[in-house]
Amino acid sequence: MVSAPVKIQHNDEWINLKIQIDDEKIAIPSPVNATIPLRHILDLEEKKKNTLTIVKKDGKTIDLVSVDKVLFVLKHKILMKCSGYRLMVQFISPAIRGGVLVTNATWEKGAIIVLKTGIWCITQNKQICIPISDVTGIEMTKREVNDKPTDVVKIDHLEHHDVVSSFILTQVSTLEILHNFLQEATAGIKMEGTELGPMDQQIAMLVYSGMDSSSIQNMLQIQFKEIDRVYEKLINLNMAEVKEIRREVQLTAKGVRYITDATKAGVN
Amino acid sequence: MGRILIVDDTLFMRTLLKNILFSGGHEIVGEAGDGTEAVEKYQALKPDLVTMDVVMPKMNGIEALKEIKKMDPGAKVVMCTAVGQEQMVKLAIKSGARGYVVKPFQAPKVLDEVKNVLAS
Q1: pTM recorded for the entire structure
Q2: pLDDT, tens digit, for every residue of A155-213?
Q3: Of A189, A224, A250, at which residue does a domain stop?
Q4: Which Pfam families would you find in this protein's record (chain A) (predicted)?
Q5: CATH number at residue B65
Q6: For A100, which of B87, B90, B109 is closest by C-beta distance?
Q7: How far is A161 from chain B (nearest CA, A)?
């Protein structure tokens, strides 16, 4: 049994108290007076730093705030016992960031836990949460493990506008199950692949690479109207969002006069 | 900033890399569409760095890398591989590649990798 200081939201107020955590339950003393069996927890969310939202089977939530060390222990105990898909695995996360292999990335032994809003990869001293809403792809692929090409599951997700890839390794017999489960959990991101034509795909690839519309226009030698049409399509498919709107202007007679005068005066 | 030779069999990827590297202030001294052309252009242009695709016709990227390292053991080559070609990455490192980026790539990460390799 571990005792930990936290702030808990109770009746719209944040109150300081000490909760008791063991391998089976969390006990919250007065004035909350609640015992939460860990297996009754459905989901964990970290909406802000140092905050944790615990979602119970009955749909009720508990919001608490504490220091990193306390939250780490709490999350570990919950994740190892809560109601979610859990599997002992080896993982590398992150393995690729923005298309560049992460140097010194190594396989770590731990567990993967799939909850309603996040895929958690944890070890005794590491906790990585991949929000389901940020997942961009799940696929079975091969990766060299101990000099042998081995089946792994690859999870791609967005992290601060970088595409990050993680690899999960487990027994072949359970890998397929994990892959199917992850695909089901992230079903909302599935694309048929037929929505985009060749030009659309090229433009999407250039946007992915960080090109702005002007660079794309120069590179593909196409009219901005065509780029705008593809942008509209990507936005409608929820594949892109508007980052900024730029304007192109031309000078009026007053502006031209100003520049002409300035040039004559030797300002420019 | 460096003088860079881009090697890739697709015009689209060459143009994309050219734009990314140019935006980072690098000078593109040449382009090659296969391994054989890469080796010839390396000899003629003596670039500071080569970005090398792995799967190409005539001579693949690994063979071209080996040829270039034979000519110039200090050559700086960054391999461009597709996801799932980790065996190739390992082979490329053994053969003397100094860096690697995985397609599809993002401009800032590519520029970082090129900068690191040029500084090494």
Answers
A1: 0.67
A2: 988 887 778 899 999 988 888 888 888 888 777 666 665 678 889 988 998 998 888 89
A3: A189
A4: CheF-arch
A5: 3.40.50.2300
A6: B109
A7: 10
